[in-house]
Each structure stands twice: as C-alpha cells, then as structure tokens.
Specification:
5% of the residues lie in helices and 42% in strands. By secondary structure, the chain is mainly beta. The protein has a 6-stranded antiparallel beta sheet with strand order 1-2-8-5-6-4, with helices on one face. It has a 4-stranded antiparallel beta sheet with strand order 9-31-30-29, with no helix packed on it.
Length: 390
Amino acid sequence: MSFLLIFFILPYLCTSSYPYGLIRNASIKIPLDMNDDRGHILKSQDCNQCLCNAFSNPKVALFTCTQNESINVTCQFYYFMPIRDEIQYPNVYTNIYLIQTNETFEEKDDCCNTTTLINKINEALRTKENVTTGPLRTLADGDNNTIITVASHRDDSEKRILLKFDKSTFKPVDIPKISGLKAAGYYDEHYYLGTDGNIYVYNKNLSTLLHTITSIGAINAIRFIDKTQEMIVGTAGNGIYVCRKDEVKGYLINCTLIPRIYNDEQLHAVGVVNENAFYVGWDDTDPGIHLYTRNPRDNTWTTKDNDKITHGYETSDIIIDNCKRIWAVVAHGDKVIIYGQNKTVLGAFNVVDKSLFNLMIAENYTLIMSHGSNNGLTRIKPDLNCRPLR
C-alpha cells in the first residue's frame, strides 16, 4: 500500500503571530537517537504550547506533536530538516509543525545506499590523487581547514614528524618541526601529539609546548568526543585512556584507564559513534571490533561480548559515517569493510595498495587515505551529492 504525502502552509498563529506549516497525521522517523545539539523533547499540555516554545528557539526547524494516552502531548523538536524518506505517513496521533517555512525537506540521500556508494568509490579509484610520498600514519582534522598526519619511520624517530595539508587544495602547510611522533589530534585550539610514551599538548600555532601527559604508553590513536570534551587514546599494550578537561588549564589532560579487553595488543583504531559510545579495533585478527558504551550513572565505560562485531582481520582505523555505518580499515592490506548497525557486512572495496592505514571521510564521501608505504597521502572524489556531514 502506498500513500500520497501532501503538505502545505497554513496561516495558523501562535500567540506571537508567526506563520507556520502543518502536516496532519504524519510523523518523522530518525534512525538513531539524536544528540542534544540536533534537537530536544518537551512534554506539554497541548501542541500550541510547543508551538510557542518553537518560536522562541531560533534553532528549531520543525517539530512533531504526538497525543499521549493521557491528556498531555510529547513534542520532538528538530534543529535540521529531515529527508523526505524520514516522514512516516499516516500517523493519526501525530502532526508535524514546520517552523522555518522557507526550508524544504531534503531528498533521499543516495550515499546511504551502500551498493551505489561502493560503485562510485570504485569508479573514483581510477583517478586517485597523490599529494606526498613516504609512509604515513594518523589522519585528523587540524586548524583552519587542514589535515594533519605523521610521517612514519620504524628506526629513526627524528623522521617521525607532524605534517599538515590544506584540506581543499591538498598543498603542504609549513609548520614547526616536531619529531618523535606516532599519532596526532586537534581539538579546541590545541594539538595533542602522541609519542612512544607521552602526549604533548601544543598551542594552535604549534609554537609552544603547554603540557606533557606522561607514562601512558606508546600512542597509536587519538580521537575526540566533542560534546563531552573528552579525548580517547589508544595505546600499544596499555589499553584505552579517556582524558577529560582540566578546568584550570583548559586541556584534556586528566586521563583514566578504562577496562581493557586484550592485554599487550596494539590498539590502533578508535571510531566515535556519539558521546556515549565508540568502537575499537586492534592490530590482531582475534579481538574483532568492540563497542564501548558509557554508563551515565557513574560515567564509566564498559563493553559486552554481544556488542562485538566479528571481524577476522587486523584493524588500523574505524570510521562512523553520516549514515551510521562502521567502516573498518584492514591493516597491512588494501581493503575497507563496511558494517551496518546490526553488525552485518554491507559491502567492501579495495584501494589497490597493500599498505592502507588510515581513512577520512569528507564532504560527498571524498575519501582521504594515509598509507604505510611510499604512496603517502591519497584522495579520491566519488561523483556523489550527499547530505552535509552531521
């Protein structure tokens, strides 16, 4: 059975006399729970109270008002326009109120179709761009629309230096020489540079060493949870640290070791899902990919066996994309495997280079890749038109 969705603008007025649109008997389905910066929920006596609340909040694009079994209603406010396929119709208990009447629903995002996406990626791999040679590890966003990575060298730590590139032009950006590095990250105008035993905290210009986090092991991965201002650190043999902000100094330097799963293994991959969950992977075929979740009652992190993704490969990087898929980079190989939230394989592709190490997904699924060989830093641009990154 199919339904015809019709919506239109009506001159309904709140007490503040603002116009709005109304879609009757329809609701919105968002695949996963939204972060607080994407919307909020309010229980109210009636839809008109929610309407007035929406007009007082300039971030609200629309909201749904659902009649409960009691006399109250529940309103879900959205700070963005959902795609048209996320509208559920009919729903006799819910109406959609359009606050930003000049906005329209985005069309379906074909980039969430994994088969289409992989086909476009394979086409784009024929015209892969190379920006630098030499082995690299780590990929992260830097300041002012840049990418940072670290030159990899097994025997000479002086050659393991930080490199920076303009994200648009892919041209190198001059920075002070900082050597002895293994991983790097940038958050809130500070650089966090990992070595064989410490993390150096630098200012935005990389001109001043502000702090040193000591004795936490060789650093393999640095990732950030923006909403809660936390840094996730993966190490070689010492497990995972969660570092929180020192309110006096303003850096993420108060680090706590969370329960480890496998001792003495190289943890290379950290993929942040949201403020309450992240995936991890090791340079080993046995552990698979594990999901850590936060207990909100005591702010501790745990993992369970049934949250594990069976993945019989060494893993050097994990990325969670805009469609909530899990991308796992196979270490020492050329393969990327894409998993769904239900832990099943959605697809895979090969980049024709046996040393793929890290992966970054930019707008329209432009893929930026670092390699542990002389292929260095590469980029491909699939012919796609995707929803903006959230």
